[in-house]
Specification:
The complex is a heterodimer of chains A (128) and B (341). Chain A has 128 residues and is mainly alpha-helical. Chain A contains 6 helices and 4 strands; from the N terminus they run αβααββααβα. Helices cover 70% and strands 4% of the residues of chain B. In chain B, a hairpin with a 6-residue loop joins strand 3 and strand 4. Classes of the chains: A mainly alpha (128), B mainly alpha (341). At the A-B interface, helix 1, helix 4, helix 5, strand 4 and helix 6 of A face helix 5, strand 3, helix 7, helix 8 and helix 9 of B.
Chain lengths: 128, 341
């Protein structure tokens, strides 16, 4: 298994697909099976994945606010803070929204168009 | 030395108000966006320099014949407790204002950079988890979302262009290439640095007409520059159609198929000899107030539909010379008296 980034992605995919809290051990086992399958397909061996690595990944995700831990119980069980769809919606809201400093954060191909401006565009395109 | 501060103050006022208003109303920037971009940068830099310079020179007047001797005198007062009786209330006021304005500008620039970087980092983190690398292009990812969306997220080696499923479904390969080359132009030409500087400039002095006009103009000019790059590899009709499709599906209220169909009629209207009048029927407008970005879209489309020739070389040379002069004049007013005397 390669970088921490890829592991973060794999762990989030599992948590999003599972819909329920899981311990680091469970996640490690599931990761091992998925990577084995991938490793076979790609033609190289999947290396043994340590639980501590999974815990590192989980704490990084927790710091980013993507994963939360059920406290009190041991071993800790982890779950996604919100669904993949919610995160996508949040991201797209940021992109499509009209926050004043958004314009400096990213460059959209086309900005938002309002009614009256759509009318102007329509005229422009219609008059050819 | 009094006349120097007077001249600088006049320059500052001219650059803060009448000049940007005239430039923002002019039509030639659409013909030579690169030249216009340099002029806006010169106006912003010269404006800031003359504002600070005017106050500095006025405040230092009693203690030095020029900026250099004045600053030396000031350093003596601050560092070595030289007597400050020469400076009256208004001189101290002007000096403090110059120092505050300088600190405010630098601080806002840094703060804006920090805020932008933080938002970009957060955005990249989520993209890393949510988006899949594109098979079509390098440094491009695809996110699963129905509305046609394309944007680029600058970040040095981590710069990435993001396309939505809805966009991929709605665009023909050539249109997709036009969008990608437009976004790549933003990244290659480092447009985010301009966006950052002018966003900070506006953030620092929001009540000054020049900062708002400059930011809107720069936002619009970079789109034109990127369009020009896209036109090098793809046809004009292709680019217009791509713009129409993306503009027709703003907030995800409609499916990609509907968007594509409608945009098809828009683009058909855009291409001569096709049916006019079909354009944009039923286009849903997104929420929100009148935005500068839509005005940008309109000026982009009209520029593509009825292109005007680039400014003649002589006119461009004149604008460039004017930009250089704008920077040279306040600099010379500040420094030359010191060198001469």
């Amino acid at each position: 298994m390669a970088s921490l980034g890829e592991l973060e992605r794999a762990v989030m995919d599992l948590l999003w697909a599972g819909h329920e809290a899981a311990t680091a051990n469970t996640l490690r086992d599931r990761l091992a099976t998925t990577t084995e399958a991938k490793g076979d397909a790609a033609g190289h061996e999947g290396k043994e994945l340590a639980v501590t690595t999974v815990l590192t990944v989980l704490s990084r995700l927790e710091k980013k606010g993507l994963v939360e831990r059920e406290r009190g119980m041991r071993p800790h069980r982890y779950q996604a803070v919100s669904s993949r769809e919610d995160h996508t919606a949040e991201l797209m809201h940021e992109v499509l929204g009209s926050a004043p400093d958004r314009e400096a954060v990213l460059a959209r191909f086309i900005g938002s168009v309002t009614d009256s401006e759509a009318e102007t565009l329509r005229k422009l395109l219609g008059h050819i | 030395m009094f006349w120097t501060s007077y001249l600088l103050a006049v320059l500052a006022i001219v650059l803060a108000w009448p000049v940007p208003i005239l430039l923002s109303r002019a039509s030639w920037p659409a013909r030579s966006p690169f030249t216009a971009m340099l002029l806006w940068q010169a106006i912003a830099l010269a404006g800031g320099l003359s504002m600070i310079g005017a106050m500095l020179v006025y405040g230092l007047e009693p203690i030095g014949d020029n900026l250099i001797s004045g600053l030396r005198g000031l350093a003596d007062m601050v560092l070595f407790n030289a007597p400050t009786t020469a400076l009256g209330f208004w001189h101290l006021f002007a000096l403090s204002a110059a120092a505050l304005l300088t600190a405010h500008l630098v601080f806002t620039l840094l703060l804006t950079y920090y805020k932008i970087e933080r938002q970009r980092r957060r955005h990249r983190e989520l993209l890393a988890l949510l988006a899949a690398p594109s098979v079509d292009a390098a440094r491009t990812v695809v996110i699963s979302h129905d509305s046609p969306v394309a944007y680029c997220l600058p970040g040095g080696a981590r710069s990435v262009t993001v396309l939505s499923d809805g966009l991929m479904a709605a665009l023909e390969p050539a249109e997709l290439r036009a969008v990608l080359s437009h976004e790549n132009a933003h990244l290659n030409q480092r447009h985010h640095l301009l966006l950052w500087a002018f966003a900070a400039w506006r953030q620092a002095l929001p009540w000054l007409p020049t900062t708002r006009l400059a930011q809107e103009a720069v936002n619009s000019l970079i789109e034109m520059l990127a369009d020009d790059v896209a036109l090098k590899s793809e046809g004009k009709a292709t680019l217009i159609k791509a713009i129409a499709i993306v503009a027709s599906g703003p907030t995800g209220g409609m499916t990609a198929g509907m968007g594509a169909g409608m945009a098809g009629s828009m683009a058909a209207a855009a291409i001569p000899s096709a049916h006019p009048g079909l354009a944009l029927d039923g286009l849903e407008a997104p929420t929100g107030a009148v935005s500068g970005s839509a005005r940008t879209t309109i000026s982009r489309v009209s520029r593509l539909l009825s292109p005007e020739p680039q400014l003649p070389a002589a006119a461009r040379g004149l604008v460039l010379a004017g930009s250089a002069l704008l920077l040279a004049v306040p600099t010379a007013l500040l420094i030359v008296p010191g060198l001469l005397g």
